[in-house]
């Protein structure tokens, strides 16, 4: 049974609820311990859900990265084997090599952009996943509607 | 006195973060390798163009010489 009503109107930041629970006066230490534990558990349960979603997002991102890296390796191999090695030969048809290279270069540039984008995204999510509590606090402070009674 | 709260016991988040950072390095590395391969291929193109220019200019000079009327010294 909650002792206090920690309304979302008080503050969105879960840390404020936790401090509030610790600052209140209680009839006895058992009631104090029980209430602090209740508030902490309720908040940690919410953070745990967020942490799990961060882990799921990380896995999806890593799977996307595996596909991108494999495609990049294939393009790199095609450039090396179909163009570079051929340019070493004295009988190379430069026009045909230039046409094929232009197409491969365009694919390679798209792939480079995609790899750099996924790297930036991975770093952005890593920062959140590294400290899920801080990330959750930042989220609910930014979007107070996500904050509910603990 | 500042009230200290207990830290949140994170489970898999920090491990996922470490893996993501490692992978991010890998993605950047793959992008760099691809960029380097393009640069190397363009150097190969430069060398091939130079070879073609040299041989075509030699061929052109031979053809020009062959077309000229024969002039012998003293003729």
Write the layout of secondary structure elements.
The complex is a heterodimer of chains A (150) and B (75).
Chain A: H1 14-23, H2 29-87, H3 94-130, H4 132-142
Helix pairs in contact in A: 1-2, 2-3, 3-4
Chain B: H1 13-67
Throw out a few tags for this protein.
heterodimer, A: 150 residues, 78% helix, rod-shaped, B: 75 residues, mainly alpha
Quick one: how many beta strands of chain A? 0
- Give the biggest beta sheet of chain A: none
Helix percentage range of chain A: over 70%
Strand content of chain B: under 5%
Q: SSE order of chain B, as H and E?
A: H
Distance between the ends of chain A: 12 Å
Question: What's the assembly state of these chains?
Answer: heterodimer
Indicate the structural class of chain A.
Answer: mainly alpha
Total strands of chain B: 0
Could you say how many structural domains of chain A there are in total?
Answer: 1
Please outline the major beta sheet of chain B.
none
Residue-averaged pLDDT of chain A: 90
Q: Give the overall form of chain A.
A: rod-shaped
Element-level helix/strand string of chain A = HHHH
Q: Summarize model confidence as the mean pLDDT of chain B.
A: 90
């Amino acid at each position: 049974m909650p002792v206090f009503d920690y309304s979302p109107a008080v503050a969105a930041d879960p840390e404020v609820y936790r401090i509030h629970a610790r600052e209140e006066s209680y009839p006895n230490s058992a009631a104090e311990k029980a209430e602090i534990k209740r508030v902490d558990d309720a908040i940690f349960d919410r953070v745990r859900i967020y942490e799990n979603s961060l882990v799921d997002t990380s896995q999806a991102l890593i799977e996307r990265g595996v596909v991108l890296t494999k495609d990049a390796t294939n393009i790199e191999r095609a450039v090396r084997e179909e163009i570079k090695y051929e340019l070493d030969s004295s009988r190379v048809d430069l026009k045909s090599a230039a046409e094929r290279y232009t197409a491969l270069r365009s694919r390679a540039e798209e792939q480079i952009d995609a790899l750099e984008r996924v790297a930036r995204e991975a770093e952005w999510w890593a920062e959140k996943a590294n400290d899920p509590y801080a990330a959750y606090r930042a989220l609910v402070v930014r979007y107070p509607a996500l904050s509910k009674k603990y | 006195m500042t009230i200290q709260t207990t830290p949140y016991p994170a489970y898999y988040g920090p491990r996922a973060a470490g893996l993501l950072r490692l992978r991010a390095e890998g993605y950047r590395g793959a992008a760099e390798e691809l960029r380097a391969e393009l640069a190397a291929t363009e150097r190969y193109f430069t060398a091939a163009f130079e070879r073609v220019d040299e041989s075509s200019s030699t061929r052109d000079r031979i053809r020009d010489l062959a077309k000229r009327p024969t002039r012998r010294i003293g003729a």
